[in-house]
Amino acid sequence: MAPPKPKASPAKVSSDGVKQSKLPRNVQKLVSHRTTRHLWSKLKRTAAKKKVPADKLLQKRPKFVVKKIGGEKNGGERRVLQKRTRRYYPTEPVFKKRRSGHVSFKSHKRTLKPGLEPGRVLIVLAGRHRGKRVVFLKQLASGLLLVNGPFTINKCPLRRMHQQFVIVTSTKLDISSVKVPEHINDRYFKVKRQQKEKKGDGANVFAQEKQTWKPDEQRKADQKDMDKQMLGLIRKHPEKKMLMSYLGSYFQLRNRMYPHKMKF
Q1: What pTM, to 2 d.p., does this model score?
Q2: Which of 89, 90, 206, 252 has a 20 to 30 Å separation from 159 between CA atoms?
Q3: Is the domain defined by 120-190+217-255 classed in CATH 3.30.460?
Q4: What are the pLDDT digits (tens) for 160-169?
């Protein structure tokens, strides 16, 4: 014989004799549901400022307030809106600037590789100076690295390099006494593009040849100044001969040389 089924518990009855409705288990209350939880926390903060219980703010406020007025023919009372409408409206539509999750490039957080600090010797992996060893001076506002050869040792001038295309070595120089001019920034390295010439029938017959980029006098003076400061540091180093040859040599891989097993 099958066991008897358990009887459902009777619904709760209030003191007025009205049955109280019971929420199902899978339905959450407004204050605890994940979609409205942040609104409830905001409501609690507002209630704390106004020094009133939070449940009171959830109560629906009446739209109208009855106010007594004088005068025999005015009816004695009048309904007034609690939230009054605006008296004046703009003649042209005013659009509010909405906040978005987009962050501009200048607001990005600039981070560096582990071990990448001013004075480190880096190995360049890309560009016309790939394979050369350079000294890291500082990080620019764009996040690029300002490096120097020096030029008198390995013909690598003041350049910007991305940290993705360099290998950080364990060799480090103390460049605390080296002063990098303030005008050497991202704008300093920007090349002025020449206007493209027209082709076809509208082309200039007497157009001159394309001019190649050449460093100006300011760039040459800055390069000499930075090389002078860095060479003074290298000459004071106890192993200056080894350091000179190390910076002047190229990085290269031979047979059975595995980069992931090497210690730089």
Answers
A1: 0.60
A2: 252
A3: no
A4: 999 999 999 9
